[in-house]
Design a protein that fits this description.
The protein has 81 residues and is mainly alpha-helical. The protein has one domain (2-77). It has two helices and no strands.
Length: 81
């Protein structure tokens, strides 16, 4: 049992370090974004040729909430947690 707690601690430590590192990198990259007036973004070949669907963003949010609920159910009911 002590080995399992050690593994859980290492996993939590790793997740914390990765979370901090990703947040730090996003901050660095955000400061280096070029001027949008001088360098406009490249055109999007797919989205420029697909019609706008007003309800699609709301539908994707509901699907994401459903996936989070399924994930939590799996985590809470998993036999070897």
């Amino acid at each position: 049992m002590p080995l399992q707690k050690f593994k859980t601690f290492i996993a939590a430590l790793y997740a914390s370090v990765v979370l901090y590192f990703c947040a730090f990198m996003i901050t660095i990259v955000n400061d280096r974004v070029p001027d949008m007036e001088k360098y406009p973004p490249l055109p999007d070949l797919f989205l420029d040729n697909v019609p706008y669907i007003p309800w699609a963003f709301s539908a994707s949010e509901y699907i994401a909430l459903l996936l989070v609920a399924v994930f939590l159910i799996v985590i809470l009911t998993h036999r070897h947690r």
